[in-house]
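The record is kept unedited without comment:

——
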Amino acid sequence: MGMRTNNYEIAKDQARKLFLNWDQARMIERCGLASDGEYLYLPFLGQPFRVSRATGAAENLECGREANFEEALTLYDYLCRELPPPGMAGQWKPLHALRYAGQSSPGSSSFYQKYADRFQEKQGALRQVLSQIGKPFPVGDIACQFPVFEGFDAVFQFWEGDEEFPPSVRFLWDDNTPDYLKFETTFYAMGSFLELLERKIAEL
């Protein structure tokens, strides 16, 4: 576990250093960021974050802590891009159906099953938390459209289990997602969202 944690920290530090090589003035203009002399400010999953302009360190202001690996890598990927955000296409697809050449995603049954099992026992709390984070989505036993970044949403769906099928969690992404995040980064964003749901449920 120590080696794995160390590898995460190394990757996070490398991404932080790459962030510092980018033109922050252009970044602010391109993404419409709030900023001052010390920090860039932006919401991620509806939570306030800031990134130090001097060191690149990212912080989750809602939790009062340093951004974890998944949060930080998603922030850096979103910020460190050449083209401005294109806006949403308005077409929802599972991740494997998007234009990520040669990429395949793990099945939801393995990637999200532990969350689905826990949400099965807390459906009322899940519904309450989702109503605070996003807006209702018509497909799914419990589902919502939630903000990833400003002007860029995704969809979370929970399907209740029964005697034949276990509960399941799925995500849908906008057709323009590849212009916002790399393929692997979408998994960091999904992991961050599931952790956010669990934290919010625990706080009820």
Summary: The chain has a mean pLDDT of 93.
